[in-house]
Input
Amino acid sequence: MQIQVNGQKIISRIHELGQLGIDEQGRRTRLAASDTEKQGRDLVVSWMKEAGLKVVVDYIGNIFGIWETEENKNEKPVMTGSHIDTVINAGRYDGCLGVISGIEVIQAMKEAGVKTKHPLVVGAFTNEEGVRYSPDMMGSLVYAGGLSTKDALASVGTDGTILGEELKRIGYAGTVEPGFLKPEAFVELHVEQGPIMDIEGISIGAVENLQGIHWQRVTIEGMANHAGTTPTKLRADAGLAAARINVFARELVEQSGGMATVGTMEFKPNAVNVIPSKAVFTVDLRNPNKEKLDSDEKKLADYIKQVASEDHVHITTQQMTCFDPVDFDETICRLIEKVAENHGFSVKRMTSGAGQDAQMIARICPTAMIFVPSVHGISHNPDEFTKDEDICHGAAVLLDVLAELAAK
Ligand code: HGY
Ligand code: MN
Ligand code: MN
Output
């Protein structure tokens, strides 16, 4: 029986959810456990209920829509899902595609009267982006047992708030222990967020692995002084030291084939004519190869020491995340390829450059991802765009992959 997924419904819901969190400058921002994200959560919960799913929220605020029957409720569920929190001034597809498509695909199977051996569940995981609270992929990491619920709830945000209190405030301090459902398998549909599929004209990505991610915060303390009277050699310039480290990180990854990003930077006193006494910034290092990633991190640490002595500044670093590269499940990747080919869609094995909830759930069950193209590879940017037909293709593949996994 060929079940039809209502692609138009998915597309209109992506746009409906994408309207939440738009501020007065037109920037879309739904940071984890914020008021705007609560609006998104409430909308997703209403869709899950409309689909006739049982909605359960766990202690870290992960939301699950569960479809189980009398016959299969004691079996382990096949799970899909993603996240609806965003970065600052975000696009509308990152994460949301996977949650909205998951709801629609399960509803389509339910309403078609499909009998599955396993229940089906769609999750919306808390704080995948890690912009307000670190680390990223927090909700799925806690779910997979990689971080204690207690430590996660105690995490302090960039705005000084405590995640556990914020979840209570927005009404999503859930009622069950994370990990309460042990999935049989997990498949996440997500936009590629990179340019490869768009450039090569590929419709479906069978994501077989994901690069490692190391985040650290660097604090440099120098000495404020007059920009016009302090000779260069007498300066302890925190700003210059920060710039040197940023440039070095880029040179490192140009050798190793990894990626380095200094995404946040603040100076004190931040005045045009004062040598910065303090610089605080973050370094996001990534590489699909663990040895290279660890080696880049070591080389960066050695260079930071060298800069500290040459520039007469004091530098401290604080690790924020340390996630190794992840290999996904080969059997599920093959199933994604087979289903895509059955639909006549072009398909290619892909590596995820972005961190994903799937990388955490892969710790507890066979897991893989389905990618659809991002036009010009733009993401974490309001110009993020995926064509309607690619959304429909991705959802159709997700449905058949979940149906086959839930039937076994
Ligand atoms: O950082 C990442 O790659 C993901 O978007 N959280
Ligand atoms: Mn994402
Ligand atoms: Mn993202």
Observations:
- The pocket of manganese (II) ion (ligand 2) is lined by residues 83, 94-95, 128, 190, 354 (CB under 6 Å).
- The first helix runs from residue 7 to 18.
